[in-house]
Amino acid sequence: MVPIQWGNVLPRLRVSRVIDHDVVIIGGGLAGSRAALEIVRTNPRLSVALVAKTHPIRSHSVAAQGGIAATLKNVDEADSWEAHAFDTVKGSDYLADQDAVEILTREAPDVVIDLEHMGVLFSRLPDGRIAQRAFGGHSHNRTCYAADKTGHAILHELICNLMRYGVKVYDEWYVMQLILEEGQAKGVVMYHLLDGQIEVIRAKAVMFATGGYGRVFNTTSNDFASTGDGLAMTAIAGLPLEDMEFVQFHPTGLYPVGVLISEAVRGEGAYLINSEGQRFMENYAPSRMELAPRDITSRAIAREIRAGRGIHPDGSAGGPFIYLDLRHMGQEKIMSRVPFCWEEAHRLLGIDAVHQPMPVRPTVHYSMGGIPVNTEGRVRSYGEALVDGFFAAGEAACVSVHGANRLGSNSLLECVVYGKRTGAAIAEFVENRKLPPLDASPYLQVARQQLQSLLDQAGQYRIAQVRQAYQDCMTEHCGVFRQESVMREGLAKLKQIQQQYAQIRLDDSGKLWNTEIIEALELKYLMIVGEIILTAALNRKESRGSHAREDYPDRDDLNFLQHTLAYYSPAGIDLTYRPVCITLFQPQERKY
Ligand SMILES: Cc1cc2nc3c(=O)[nH]c(=O)nc-3n(C[C@H](O)[C@H](O)[C@H](O)COP(=O)(O)OP(=O)(O)OC[C@H]3O[C@@H](n4cnc5c(N)ncnc54)[C@H](O)[C@@H]3O)c2cc1C
Q1: Domain 441-579 adopts which CATH fold?
Q2: pTM of full prediction above 0.70
Q3: Domain-by-domain residue ranges, the chain?
Q4: Residues within 6 Å of ligand 1 by CB
Q5: pLDDT digit string (tens) for 235-289?
Q6: What is the CATH number of domain 19-210+410-430?
Q7: Which residues pair with 547 in a beta bridge?
Q8: What is the Cα–Cα distance from 48 to 526, expressed in whole angstroms?
Q9: Which of 8, 143, 447, 515 is deepest in the core (most CB within 10 A)?
């Protein structure tokens, strides 16, 4: 087949064309769509573009199951925002910025009621108020939910509202580059999956809400689109990424696929059982048992498996998983509270959780770190300096409310609270501002060349092959437990795999719906993100939250009660550190 020439796809005459909007938001998940809604609610005259490489309602947010935390006090009157804030800070192993946590927990009830008014179908108590359930690391029952399909319920309602307000949605457009000139964000370069068209959007404000990077690892609960593109593009632009070493493993990924079985299942009373039939959490977190925070529970499961108390598919001891047992909960409760988890196990493994335990083990789930932002969603560059016109929120951002370990049901909350705040800040920022001057031609030309050289490359490796080698490397060398020598070896391997990238071969040379081109770009970005994770993890010589070093098993507040900032360049990664904001709670030993 003759490869296409990019000049044919985008005729030279159209090279300098620019699409103008007041605001461009990349990402149609909860954070991006909540921000877009806030902007048009504040000022309906603003032209807002929302770009997503998937359709917005296929963003990973749609898969969120267990719920969203807020101290509504519907089932537990003793709850308070202060208790929610304390649980969050303790859960974060004291690395969260407490000013940001205070905002998160104080504003939580209002944003949930606002969602309710938009029409989100929350599950109810018999008296009609929003129901709330228990969740790991939360000291009160404060997680609001829509059965175990909470993300689905919220995202659909938000997207319906965007349609109503006339937000322009560019779905299945892949953003390839952030345009940053002289410290000012001016727009993005994007590629249309449908027909290979390349365009530049120019805007007064650019927001990244591009989600997480679970696909850096070989076993994850995340969707295929969670490839950390926004993080890599920010790093390539010379801006820092914060606390990237903190990767959350969710305790209960279905074995062997890694698909999530929500913490809601344990919130509703399920047990974790080893090969000896023991509820082993009594040895690790006796006061919280199965509802200990995720870092502690994931390590406990990994230790049980290492000690030979895991289970094999034939039921014998010494295998690679443990059991999540729902049987005592009974059919009625399982089918009304966690029907989706039952369906997942049934569809993927043929297991009927009413009568059989589910095989589970930790799976990569969430990125605590990300693009550093202040509490208005403005992106930081050096120290306290901010990037003009650049904003971020949601899982791609690090504000930091989760510190070294996120509590379940706090991420949807972060997306909604900080999506809303960032939207409000953007609406104010663009008021009375002009569109920045921008010559789009060089950007379009570079993008075209980049794609053309990918197509022309007559390499020996398939994308899937290189990606698998890379994901296996990250999983083996930067997993639940970490060690200097293992990570160093991982970095060396990573360098070799990066060289293979220069020799990948694409089979599809067409311009219509060429998903291979997207996969090639995603792989490049994945590898940058992984290199930053490994480098930041090597340098943090302590154990805190999800970052468990076998060679430095203790937390070291003297040297590491601070945020990592990583600056990427192809020549290497520089690290600096930033102090943690401590306003409410002094660091203590973390016990459950
Ligand atoms: C299975 C699962 C269950 C979860 N359950 C819960 C829960 O119950 N409670 C909770 O609090 N949290 C939960 N989480 C975490 C939570 O869902 C996510 O952290 C949150 O939804 C992330 O939202 P977001 O808006 O930041 O990003 P996402 O929803 O991931 O959206 C990212 C968007 O960016 C777009 N994008 C990315 N890169 C590009 C690019 N290069 N060009 C164009 N567009 C791009 C994507 O298309 C997408 O629209 C769960 C996560 C998973 C994986």
Answers
A1: Methane Monooxygenase Hydroxylase; Chain G, domain 1 (1.20.58)
A2: yes
A3: 19-210+410-430, 252-362, 441-579
A4: 26-32, 51-54, 56, 59-61, 63-68, 150-151, 174-175, 209-211, 221-222, 225-226, 229-230, 260, 366, 394-396, 408-412, 415
A5: 999 999 999 999 999 999 999 989 999 999 999 999 999 999 999 999 999 999 9
A6: 3.50.50.60
A7: 544
A8: 28
A9: 143
